[in-house]
Specification:
about 475 residues; binds nicotinamide-adenine-dinucleotide; about 25% strand; six-stranded parallel β-sheet; Rossmann fold
Length: about 475
């Protein structure tokens, strides 16, 4: 059954049999200033794609033929705005800080094509909270119960990271669409399995890289990838404005332990930055890193990191991150052959050189000659839609095949960089990418087994999550 709406008002049901759809009964509808009849019904095609042909007639002339896939909510802009729409029912697994923020987005009407029907959490208090907010939703004590409940077509996974892949795999196998929170998982071996399962289904599989909606980074990527400024020579990102207190680390038993979280600043705060880094500049092929564990906090995992990276074209990069600096810095510098781009304080400064550095270096006659250039204004337009934007794109992808901000399989890239940084730091040597995934997992297991983290947990769920999204 799908619902047909005109001007957002529910009109009638369309009946979906296996490979057929019929619209019933013929009726006359008044809409805006025109009278339209749904004149004809029908159709068919291959499994999964049902074609609906509706001949719309105004009083005199045919004014449009609508074709739509059955699982589409189609917004039809032929004469008279017929809207055939349905919402995707979805469930949230894990309604702690991030999961409740997604739930609030729904309650605030920011997710027009999603309908929250269920939540699952292993903590009964969180389920009680969810039920108080939305008494009509179903609540479940486990992810499995929600997945097999038949209440949802899609899920959003907002549990601690280790559980993202197993929950996603179970849901994909059960035929659900999946949006996983970042990071994709804790180790690439685990994430690779999830990607493999996703590739064998036709379900939508996405990851919450909300910083990809940030118009500043979108513009930066466009500049770097335009080809206009030549190849990247150097990239430096100082991203130290992730300050966290000890109270933050004490707020969840899983946080900042090898067994519960699988890392510190790199696995929790930096997945966004590591994703943007590779999304804008491409993947490095070698990583050399130092990860200081418990340097600024009483935790067993890293809270201060310096990564040195090498790229296939010979470019180099440095990535510095910590949760210990206050005030921190967020400065991304990209030196290209014909330009230097600096991104800081939500601004992009673009300095375009008169000619390429590689050419000038060898062609200039004077030893101390300086290559000239000028600042060029960079116009940044649009809106950074963040988490609701990513969720709305997820719904639009399920309904109409529109593009995602990040396919779930892309989550492995940033994770590969952080896994390589840990491995390099643990072994005290550079690590080539792609990473030796078995070796990394063996080393991670050693840390989990020898962990003696004992936490006095003071649980907190934040009302306002915006400070956690980074800049
Ligand atoms: N995209 C972002 O900007 C962003 C921001 C913050 C957190 N996150 C991500 O969201 C995830 C959750 O982080 P958080 O800060 O909300 O943690 P949290 O501890 O506040 O919430 C996690 C919730 O999941 C529940 N849970 C744990 N295991 C579960 C399981 N197996 N099944 C069902 N429920 C389970 C817990 O009881 C808790 O309520 C993390 O992976 C984190 O990286 C993303």
């Amino acid at each position: 059954m799908i619902k047909i709406y005109i001007n957002n008002k529910f009109l009638q049901y369309a009946c979906n049999t296996k490979n057929k759809i019929s619209i019933f009964p013929y009726r006359k509808y008044i809409f805006k200033h025109e009278i339209l009849w749904i004149r004809s019904k029908c159709a068919f095609i291959a499994p999964n794609i049902l074609l609906i042909l509706l001949f719309l007639l105004n009083e005199k002339n045919p004014c449009g033929i609508i074709t739509a896939t059955l699982n589409s909510a189609c917004l039809i802009k032929s004469k008279g705005d017929l809207i055939m729409s349905r919402k995707i029912t979805f469930g949230i697994i894990g309604v702690g800080n991030m999961g409740s923020s997604h739930m609030r987005s729904f309650m605030e009407g920011k997710l027009p094509e999603l309908e929250l029907t269920a939540v699952a959490d292993i903590n009964p208090e969180r389920l009680e909270w969810a039920k108080e907010q939305l008494p009509n939703i179903s609540v479940f004590n486990t992810a499995s119960e929600l997945i097999h409940s038949g209440k949802c077509e899609a899920i959003v996974i907002a549990t601690p990271h280790y559980d993202h892949p197993p929950i996603a795999i179970e849901a994909l196998k059960a035929g659900l669409h999946v949006m996983t929170e970042k990071p994709a998982g804790v180790y690439t071996k685990q994430v690779r399995e999830m990607i493999e399962v996703a590739s064998q289904t036709d379900r939508t599989f996405a990851i919450m890289f909300n910083q990809r909606t940030n118009v500043v980074y979108r513009k930066l990527r466009e500049l770097v990838q335009s080809g206009e400024y030549g190849e990247i020579r150097r990239v430096n990102w100082i991203i130290t404005d992730w300050f966290r207190t000890q109270a933050y680390y004490d707020s969840g038993g899983w946080r900042a332990t090898w067994a519960g979280e699988g890392g510190g600043v790199l696995i929790n705060q930096c997945p966004h930055n590591l994703d943007l880094w590779q999304w804008i500049c491409g993947m490095p092929n070698k990583i050399w890193a130092t990860c200081h564990q418990g340097k600024w906090h009483n935790i067993e995992v890293e809270d201060d990191v310096t990564i040195y990276a090498e790229y296939p074209n010979g470019a180099t990069g440095v990535f510095i991150a910590t949760t210990g600096d206050c005030p921190g810095t967020n400065r991304l510098e990209i030196t290209m052959d014909k330009a230097k781009i600096v991104c800081e304080n939500n601004e992009i400064k673009l300095y375009v050189l008169d000619e390429s550095i590689s050419k000038f270096t060898y062609e200039a006659k004077l030893g101390f000659a300086k290559l000239k250039g000028q600042y060029v204004d960079v116009e940044i337009t649009g809106e950074s839609t963040h988490h609701p934007g990513v969720l709305n794109a997820f719904a639009a992808n399920i309904l109409r095949g529109e593009p995602l901000y990040a396919h779930g399989s892309e989550g492995i890239n940033s994770l590969m960089i952080s896994n390589a940084a840990y491995l390099s730091s643990w072994l005290g040597r550079p690590v080539e990418l792609p990473l030796d995934e078995d070796l990394f997992y063996e080393e991670l297991k050693k840390r989990i087994e020898s962990s003696n983290a004992k936490k006095e947990v003071k649980a907190q769920v934040q009302e306002d999550m915006s400070s956690t999204y980074g800049s």
